[in-house]
Specification:
The structure holds 2 protein chains of 2 kinds.
Chain A (H helix, E strand, L loop, with lengths): L16 H22 L5 H9 L3 E3 L4 E5 L5 E3 H14 L3 E4 L5 E6 L4 H10 L16 E2 L13 H12 L14 E4 L13 E7 L5 E7 L11 E8 L3 H15 L10 H8 L1 H13 L2 H4 L3 H8 L19 H10 E3 L5 E6 L10 E3 H14 L3 E4 L5 E7 L3 H10 L14 E2 L14 H10 L3 H7 L4 E4 L13 E8 L2 E8 L11 E2 L4 E2 L3 H15 L6 H8 L2 H8 L3
Parallel strand pairs in A: 6-7, 7-8, 16-17, 17-18
Antiparallel strand pairs in A: 1-2, 2-5, 3-14, 4-5, 4-13, 8-9, 9-10, 11-12, 12-15, 14-15, 18-19, 19-20, 19-21
Helix pairs in contact in A: 1-2, 1-4, 3-12, 6-8, 14-16, 16-17, 16-18
Chain B lengths: L2 E3 L2 E3 L4 E2 L11 E4 H6 L1 H4 L6 E4 L6 H4 L8 E6 L6 H11 L6 E6 L6 H6 L4 E3 L6 H9 L26
Parallel strand pairs in B: 3-4, 4-5, 5-6, 6-7, 7-8
Antiparallel strand pairs in B: 1-2, 1-8
The chains are: A alpha+beta, B alpha/beta.
The structure holds iron/sulfur cluster.
Chain lengths: 555, 165
């Protein structure tokens, strides 16, 4: 099997025989379900949730297969296989998503079983990437590498993956359910806008425990999560998660799809929700759900540090162009002499999150050469090579440039999140990708982007907010106004520790004027900023008025 | 309607009784309202008694009556409505109910294994059901990553082969 050719030190969870058997059984089951549908034994209504739970959506022009990348972790053999799938069964591209997954937007129904087989060859699948079940858990793309990490979140993300896979009680929930977990005090996973957000931490004795937040979310009713508990001991982690899910499954709204997420239940019940979870947790037969330290250790072994060389930190190569790239893309590592590198999937004027088959293969090669064969997908639709020797950075940059992957814009204004919008999505009310492309082209000058500094723009093509516009510094929401696409602007959102929902600034802009509006916001920020201030800092200090005046002042 | 138990069809020897109809001497399933209203009178009844609960009923509501109930029927109004799974699990786990838990409503074979794992005993199926479709679905996946009702071993992610009947 291909699994034998995995790079030896890539720390992805390695399937054993039971995991593989499960996957084969699941593929056979889905094949049987397709046959029953074709034979008329299942109605379309009965079949739809089964198809969704296997990752298959019907979009505007074609089926889309969403493949799970558990907590965004890939090894090079897997990424290469994704490239192969893109070339063979899609149009040569894959699209990385904000849930650290990958989508193939041009899938033919009859090819799906073969695609699933190809995924299974590298221990991958499309299970629970859609449907009203527990979805792929997301985590910190710098896990195991970042200096500020207290607990390795990958271990618990994998435990959550196994626990939530075909959970007998929680596969027919009122609505989809998304969990994010971080093991660092600096939240990079947007924990507070998830159905459940988990902060793994340690007490004075060094024991692991979890702070649990629930009921956050975006969509048409954006809400910051409520903290349920400051500390759940490691052994009780799954018991507590079960308690949260049980209360939700029993009481969540099922009549109105827009009120069915857990955030509405938590908002409406308030503290009573917390009390109900606590009561459920108290009376559970705790032994039955105890997370055995042996299991934690066994799963933890999959994520042991790779064999780092003992090196010293060193100065960057002097090439100014390289330095510009490095200042955006290279990040400190906990191991001296190493760094983490973020690869931009946001070329100027490109489609955010898209990668070609050739690019996937190029990244797989570079990961093998420079990062123990390991790759991460980020929730802002970029890729990360987590463990790169500083002495190799210059060579890596050369390799990325050759593949068209060295745009030095990580964290800058053209590092835009955009949902698929009208180009693919059946629910869209406006285009989203072309707006991202036009903004990126307007700010094409990299010197200017670096001068503007950190600024997050997120774009959604309808009120469902898949582009997370509410938590962007500048959020753009496309809506339909009497048959015309118009774009609302929100300012001041944040998805980190200081999570905040952006504020609607005023009347919407047309497709033609929205890019000018962004430009006006940026020039206003430049005019008001004091040294060292990012866009969001200036906005928080001076408030909305100067921006409003600049946007809506009579010419 | 026939019942599916342990993968085989069997006739239903229970009768569902409307709230205003007299109770027969044989096994009878009544509503929770009636159970509440006639609790005292029903205490002396000898024939087996069952209750049908709505999806929104919390198992605590029937807890006071469980010791005289031989059957609880839970219902899935739509295939997507999974409240019955939590009701069944809660009846077994929190209330120690050992009688029959029957699943009714719009149930498809793909629910079967999960219903069993949550503590359901029987499923009400349409006339003409081929039980082979149901057992195939039940047995399609023999790996379970979670603790199931009925299994006496605690949650174990590493020892996770299902022991299905
Ligand atoms: S935000 Fe709307 S348009 Fe964009 S992907 Fe989500 S549902 Fe589709």
């Amino acid at each position: 099997m291909n699994a034998l050719t995995y790079p030896p030190h890539a720390r992805t969870y390695r399937y054993d025989e039971i995991d593989r058997e499960f996957l084969q059984e699941r593929i056979a089951e889905f094949r049987g379900q397709i046959e029953r549908r074709l034979a008329g034994e299942l109605t379309e209504d009965e079949f739809k949730p089964l198809r969704l739970m296997n990752g298959l959506y019907l979009q505007l022009h074609a089926y889309m297969l969403r493949v799970a990348i558990p907590y965004g972790l890939l090894n090079s053999a897997q990424l290469r296989q994704l490239g192969r799938i893109a070339r063979r069964w899609d149009r040569g591209f894959g699209h990385f998503t904000t849930r650290q997954n990958i989508q193939f937007n041009w899938t033919k129904l009859e090819d799906v079983p073969a695609m699933l087989e190809a995924l299974a060859e590298v221990d991958m699948h499309a299970i629970q990437t859609s449907g009203n079940c527990i979805r792929n858990t997301t985590t910190d793309e710098y896990a195991g590498a970042t200096p500020d990490e207290v607990v390795d979140p990958r271990v618990y993300a994998e435990i959550l993956r196994q626990w939530s896979t075909l959970h007998p009680e929680f596969t027919w929930l009122p609505r989809k359910f998304k969990i994010a977990i971080t093991g660092s005090p600096n939240d990079r996973v947007a924990a507070q806008v998830h159905d459940v957000g988990v902060l793994a931490k340690r007490n004075e004795r060094g024991e692991v425990g979890f702070e649990i937040h629930a009921g956050g979310g975006l969509g048409r009713t954006p809400i910051i999560a409520r903290k349920l508990r400051d500390w759940v001991p490691e052994a009780e982690f799954l018991a507590y998660m079960e308690a949260v899910l049980r209360v939700y499954n029993a009481l969540g709204q099922r009549e109105n799809i827009y009120k069915a997420r857990i955030k509405i239940l938590v908002r409406d019940l308030g503290d009573e929700f917390t009390q109900m979870v606590e009561r459920e947790y108290e009376r559970m037969p705790r032994d039955r759900y105890r997370l055995d330290p042996e299991i934690v250790a066994a799963i933890g072994a999959h994520f042991a540090p790779p064999p780092f060389a003992s090196l010293e930190d060193q100065a960057l190569h002097a090439d100014p162009e390289f330095r510009q790239w490095a200042s955006a893309s290279v990040r400190a590592h906990r191991q001296p002499g190493y760094a983490s590198v973020t690869i931009s999937l946001k070329p100027i004027g490109g489609i955010p999150g898209d990668a070609s088959a050739d690019q996937m293969e190029a990244v797989a090669d570079l990961a093998e050469r420079h990062s123990f064969g390991e790759i991460r997908v980020t929730h802002v639709q970029n890729l990360v090579l987590p463990h790169v020797r500083q002495e190799d950075l210059y060579a890596l940059w050369g390799g990325l440039r050759a593949a068209g992957l060295a745009t030095p814009n990580i964290g800058l204004i053209s590092d835009i999140i955009a949902c698929p919008g009208m180009d693919y999505c059946a629910l869209a009310t406006a285009r989203s990708i072309p707006i991202a492309q036009r903004i990126s082209e307007r700010f094409a000058s990299l010197d200017r982007q670096h001068d503007i500094g950190e600024c997050f723009i997120n774009i959604s093509g309808c009120i469902n907010a898949c582009g997370h516009h509410h938590v962007a510094h500048i959020g753009i929401l496309g809506v339909d106004k009497r048959g015309e696409e118009v774009y609302q602007v929100t300012l001041g959102g944040s998805a980190t520790n200081d999570a905040a929902i952006g504020e609607l600034i005023g009347p919407a802009f047309s497709y033609d004027t929205i890019v000018d509006a962004v430009e006006t916001l940026i020039t206003t920020y430049i005019a008001h900023r004091v040294p060292g201030e990012r866009f969001i800092d200036t906005y928080r200090r001076v408030g909305v008025t100067p921006f409003k005046d600049a946007l809506y002042a009579p010419a | 309607m026939p019942l599916l138990e342990d993968g085989r069809l069997r006739p239903d020897d229970w009768t569902s009784i409307e709230d205003d109809a007299p109770l027969p001497d044989g096994p009878a399933i009544i509503s929770l309202d009636r159970l509440r209203a006639e609790a005292a009178a029903l205490a002396g009844r000898n024939a087996p008694l069952g209750v049908a609960v709505a999806p929104e009923t919390q198992p605590e509501e029937i807890a006071p009556f469980l010791d005289r109930l031989a059957l609880v029927a839970v219902r899935m109004p739509k295939p997507k409505d999974g409240r019955a799974f939590t009701q069944a699990r809660s009846l077994r786990e929190h209330h120690g109910f050992t009688g029959e838990i029957r699943a009714t409503g719009h149930i498809i074979p793909d629910h079967y294994a999960m219903l069993l794992r949550c503590g359901v005993t029987t499923v009400e199926v349409p006339e003409g059901t081929d039980p082979a479709t149901w057992t195939r679905s039940r047995d399609a996946i023999r790996v379970g990553y979670q603790a199931a009702q009925g299994a006496d071993r605690p949650l174990s992610l590493l020892r996770r082969k299902l022991e299905l009947a």
